[in-house]
């Protein structure tokens, strides 16, 4: 499988490149990043390097993005123009950027999820089960990431909150921090912590008034997300046009 990697110079891009280098069934044929890519990075010595995804001319089987959500439109346009399956591994997309993803999925297969981890998907499902069992309970989500994380709250926290809200029939607000004052019945709260080099922690607290359940997931290595991206790439190249996520290949 030939891969075009967008965001190759970033932390996750380099992690993915290292993971691909361990695989026998795929290789990176083109790497793109708006910022200079380290010329000494062994993962990119045998592939073409670009500063813009739109300049890539190599043939490939899939495009994967670990850059930044602001590149969503350019990336979606590229995938559609080339007729290539797309894996979007960034978070923090605006509603407009999500529309670009949905529109691209009308022409090519697109994999898009707030978190590439299989474990997180199961964690979200467990949170939903508690929400359905105790629909009257208060739900608070606390997410902790490294101090360099750009988006807040995290895509995973929003994914959990939206899943819980949907399980409750779409009712209740998603409240970020204390921006909306006193909690109302049915609110789903999200608090964000940025600290040191924490890879990623998500905690969901469900309080019924007379008991509290606490669910927690901790990511100890970014390899967790790159392994998920490998699964996503192998999955999406077998699919017809449409929008897919982790649940589709569990």
Layout of helices and strands:
Layout: E1 2-6, H1 11-21, E2 27-32, E3 48-50, E4 62-65, H2 72-82, E5 86-88, H3 95-104, E6 109-112, H4 118-133, E7 138-145, H5 155-167, E8 174-176, E9 188-194, E10 200-207, E11 212-219, H6 223-236, E12 242-244
Helix pairs in contact: 1-6, 2-3, 4-5
Give an overview of the whole structure.
By secondary structure, the protein is an alpha/beta fold. The protein folds into two domains: 2-112 and 223-249, NAD(P)-binding Rossmann-like Domain (Rossmann fold, 3-Layer(aba) Sandwich); 118-219, Dihydrodipicolinate Reductase, domain 2 (2-Layer Sandwich). 30% of the residues lie in helices and 25% in strands. It is built from six helices and twelve strands. The strands form two sheets. Strands 3-2-1-4-5-6-12 form a seven-stranded parallel sheet, with helices on both faces. The protein has a five-stranded mixed sheet with strand order 8-9-7-10-11. Helix 1 (11-21) links the parallel strand 1 and strand 2. Helix 1 packs across helix 6, helix 2 (72-82) packs parallel to helix 3 and helix 4 packs parallel to helix 5. The longest helix has 16 residues, at 118-133. The protein is elongated, with a radius of gyration of 19 Å. It starts with a strand and ends in a 6-residue tail after the last strand.
């Amino acid at each position: 499988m030939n891969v075009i990697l967008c965001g190759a110079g970033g932390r996750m891009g380099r992690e993915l490149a290292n993971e691909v280098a361990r695989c026998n069934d795929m290789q990176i044929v083109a790497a793109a990043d708006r910022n200079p890519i380290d010329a000494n990075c062994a993962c990119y010595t045998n592939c073409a390097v670009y500063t813009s995804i739109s300049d890539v001319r190599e043939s490939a089987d899939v495009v994967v993005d670990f850059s930044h959500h602001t590149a969503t439109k350019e990336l979606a346009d590229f995938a559609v123009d080339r007729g290539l399956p797309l894996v979007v591994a960034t978070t923090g997309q605006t509603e407009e950027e999500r529309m670009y993803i949905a529109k691209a999925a009308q022409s090519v297969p697109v994999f898009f999820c707030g978190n590439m981890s299989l474990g997180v998907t199961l964690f979200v499902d467990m949170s939903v089960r508690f929400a359905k069992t105790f629909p009257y309970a208060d739900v608070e989500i606390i997410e902790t990431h490294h101090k360099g994380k750009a988006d807040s709250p995290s895509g995973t926290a929003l994914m959990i909150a939206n899943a819980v809200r949907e399980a409750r029939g779409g009712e209740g607000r998603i409240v970020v921090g204390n921006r909306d004052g006193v909690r109302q019945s049915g609110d789903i709260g999200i608090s964000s912590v940025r600290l040191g080099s924490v890879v990623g922690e998500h905690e969901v607290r469900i309080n019924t008034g007379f008991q509290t359940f606490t669910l927690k997931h901790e990511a100890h290595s970014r390899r967790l997300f790159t392994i998920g991206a490998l699964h996503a790439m192998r999955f999406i190249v077998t699919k017809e046009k449409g929008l897919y996520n982790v649940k589709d290949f569990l």
